[in-house]
Amino acid sequence: MEEQMNWLATVLEPYPWAYTAVMLAALLLLAWLANFITKKILLRLLRRALGMLPVLRGENAPAMQMRAVPRLANVVPALVIAGGIMHVPGLPAQVALLVSNLAQVFVVVTVVMAISHVLDDINTIYERRPDAHNKPIKGYLQVAKIVLYALAALSAIAILAGVEPLHVLTGLGAASAVLMLVFQDTILSFAASLQISGDGRVRIGDWIEMPSQNADGDVIDIALHTVTVQNWDMTITTVPTKNLISHSFKNWRGMSESGGRRIKRALYIDQGSVRFLRPEEVESLHQFMLLDEYLKEKEQELTKWNTELASRGGSAAVNHRRVTNLGTFRVYIEQYLAKHPGIHQEMTSMVRQLQPTEAGIPLELYCFTNDVRWTYYEAIQSDIFDHLLAIMPEFGLRVFQRTSDAPIDVRLHDRRGGEGQKSGDEGGQGPRQAQD
Fold first, then answer.
1. HEC secondary structure over 160-178
2. Calpha distance 75→43 (Å, rounded)
3. Which residues pair with 262 in a beta bridge?
4. DSSP per-residue string spanning 148-214
5. Is the separation of the CB atoms in 154 and 180 below 8 Å?
6. How many CB atoms lie within 10 A of CB 291?
7. Which of 195, 209, 373, 385 is most buried, taking the most CB atoms under 10 A from its CB?
């Protein structure tokens, strides 16, 4: 091999630049060959070896293996370039040293990124355990990543400066107090940015709500020091990036991705309107298709119960079980939501009666719309409550509503058909006004 190199140098002696170019081309070819062998042969063997490990088996195993291993494969050609560039004749020493140092820095960064992916895979494997949610290790792994990135930065600085990493660490230690004081906000923001980008808690386009910062809208920009939010009133709020780590906020991305938006609103029923339904009223309610099946089953259940009760001497009506207008109305709402085209039927849907208050009995609807867009969500919600408010009198129920302090016009009518009103008018007794 040495004889061929000498022969090539003799042939190209009149053209020194040509010999340098040929050697650079040969180095690049060697690096490509090393990359090809590593990825096509060694990488496949390593994947098979990793696939034999029990912890890496499962549906997520291929994705986990593909994250760290290919990055390590890029180290081989970088090492070839770092070691061979210094032996290329005719190349200026400073250029060769710079290329060699950059290749070494690339090796350090690549190894650190591969280790970071390994830490992520360790967390993924750990989260498969049943008790992982009680003892998470993600925070500890993030601290390990920060330490790893710091060591990689020190190594890169030492390689580029041509000094020992210990010397760089000593110099930084002496100036650490000043650096921490001057760049305190930058350091905190940088650490927050790493954590935000690592766990994906905030992304551009997310709807976040942070009352402490008067932020309620879409995230339109994420920078080192600030996160910009466009509020629903089209104003702009800038939130310090570090506050997204130290302060609580609500991210509505989960709602958008789930495909369902929650309705949680109550109708306040006047307690004085709750009563048992009379037989003729029950018969009338059979015309509601949503209630017909329920009423038939309920009537069979109550008839059986009351018959057994009568055989034991409890024939008095006060002992009987009867259908109430409030309970029937609650079932009607449940059936109405189950048939409504705007309700997400694969999510929780229920109608519950809450504790009575001075404002009446809250009958709360808890369900999810199948459209998360704001205007469509409000339209579906309004359509539901419009219908329920209008249909409620059919069940003999009233919505509780406080009386205002406006004058109330009270008119007295005679049951005999207007004669009393007429005589009252003739006697000078007109409409009476009262204030509540």
1. HHCCCHHHHHHHHHHHHHH
2. 12
3. 368
4. HHHHHHHHHHHHHHTS-HHHHHHHHHHHHHHHHHHTHHHHHHHHHHHHHHHHTSS-TT-EEEEGGGT
5. no
6. 20
7. 195
Instruction: Give the angle 351-355-358 at the CA atoms, nearest 5°.
Output: 120
The tens digit of pLDDT for each residue in 59-111 reads 545 444 556 677 777 778 888 887 777 777 667 777 778 888 888 888 888 88
Please state the rounded mean pLDDT for residues 322-339.
94
Residue tagged 């070819």 (tokens):
29
Q: Is the pLDDT of residue 423 over 50?
A: no
Does this model's pTM top 0.70?
no
Q: How many Å apart are CA 83 and CA 330, to the nearest integer?
A: 79
Largest CA distance in the chain: 138
Nearest to 276 by CA among 259, 308, 298: 298
SS3 27: helix
Q: Which residues make Cβ contacts (< 8 Å) with residue 349, sequence separation at least 6? A: 334, 337, 338, 343, 366, 367, 368
Q: Give the pLDDT confidence of 160-204 residue by residue, as tens digits.
A: 877 776 766 666 666 667 766 777 777 788 788 777 877 778 888
- Measured distance CA(185)–CA(223) in Å, rounded: 13
